[in-house]
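Most newcomers find our protein records easier to grasp once they have seen one. The structure tokens are whole numbers drawn from a learned vocabulary of backbone shapes. The record below serves as our worked example for the rest of this section.
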Amino acid sequence: MRRSISHRFDYPYPRWQVWRAMTEPTALASWLMPNNFAPVVGHRFCLRTDPGPGFDGRIACEVLELDEPNQMTWSWTSGPVDTIVTFELTEDETESTVLGFTQSGFRGVRGKTAKLLLDPAIKRTYRHLLPAYLQQMPPDVDAPLPTFTHTRKTQPARMNVLEV
């Protein structure tokens, strides 16, 4: 069994727009999780989500690598999960962005279980939540960012644009 989750996601938006959605804390909180992220190598931050059995809802992370706007790597530690997440962004000739997502380092039975639980959530996040956020972003690089709210439990995701 592979010890990693790897996916490729295509977005009809320029790379700077996807990068901005992934590196500005308020944007990241709108489509991923509340956080205290900063796009600085060595910065330690926490992502927060709903707690579950054996999980307090906190994910401790650190920015390990940053090559704006091409690549970003984080450590990702929570419960039995002690992994590395790498985001690679490339732009094609139409200025659409390809996001390569890899989370590696799942070990043992608990890691295997965590991987099985995380994979569908990753697909949902990068196939639905991030694209919905990108769709609402203004086309100007310096424009204010929209803020969304969404649910994470059993209800389907809901996105409501809030006034900025």
User: Anything to note?
Assistant: The mean pLDDT is 86. Strands lie at 4-11, 44-48, 58-67, 71-78, 81-91, 97-104, 147-149, 160-162. The helical segments are 15-23, 25-31, 108-136.
